[in-house]
Amino acid sequence: MNESNKTTMAIASLLVGVVAISFGSIFIRWSEAELSPNATIFNRFWLGSVVFGLWQGYKAIRQRLSGDKPVQQHSYTSQEMKLLLGAGIFFAATLSFVAWSLTQTSIAISTILHNLAPIFTSLGAWLLFGQGFNRQFLIGMVVAIGGAIAIEIEQIQIATGEVTGGIAAILSAVFLGAYLLVIEQLRTKFDPITIQLWVCAIATFSILPILVFTGDRLFPSSVNGWLFVIFLALVCQVLGQGLLTYSVARFSSVVVSLVHLLEPVFSSILAWAIFGEKLSFSNGVGFVLVLIGLYLAVSSQAAVDIQQNRLESG
């Protein structure tokens, strides 16, 4: 596969992954009748662990039967284990803080503050790896984040009692940025299935103590409840996060975090199509700003990433 095809595949994977993740709010809303947000996340992770584990096992059996050497036969180094552990904990913390923020503040405020993740990803890439950004990227990032804010601006209600929820949402953005930075490091050695298997397994055991402490119900009690969490795991975790992890081999974590800003766009469209929620003028303006900002920022940074990949492969 030539460089152009690889880039096209990565772009397609990134976009499809974000669309899949956008279904998360839909499935969580459907499961609210039976499970708390943290319990829903717990089921997402353990079901994801099962799917990725079976997938990994199938790959190993197929490789053994065909006589091919497994792709990865090395022992895990302590550094690799730390990165895998960090990825699982960071992602579990991301979704837990999002769930907590939704119980303390409005969906609009939680969504806006959570979408500040590109700022923290860019800051981390600059501080940890010395990555620089040109003016076009910075302008595009500001425009895209502004568009994400515009999508939810009409629903914002300022209240002093919502400070805790706002802090939780900001923390979720920080942890999402850290998660993407760690995934970028892991993708230099591991395939997406291996990474997501570890992430799901570690996140499962990270969320479980919270549920034990709160006394929440762990599993759904009806067929519909099970279908909702199963589809949440398959669509959002296996398909969505799997494709995003795949794309990180081609694009930097900063680009991936920026494309994440399409999530509120797709979520709003899905809510309109499924629940009949109205789309306002500010929603439309926000959609346009997100797309313009993403074009400016992603085209700028993606060109740098592609050039770097060519140099490394050449």
From TrEMBL:
Keywords: Membrane, Transmembrane, Transmembrane helix. It is found in: Membrane. Residues 10-151, 165-298 form the EamA domain. Belongs to the EamA transporter family. It comes from the Bacteria. The chain crosses the membrane at residues 7-29, 41-61, 82-101, 107-129, 136-153, 165-183, 195-213, 225-244, 251-275, 281-298. It comes from Microcoleus anatoxicus PTRS2. InterPro entries: AA-Vitamin_Transporters, EamA_dom, EmrE-like. This is DMT family transporter. Its main location: membrane. Gene3D superfamilies: 1.10.3730.20. It is a multi-pass membrane protein.
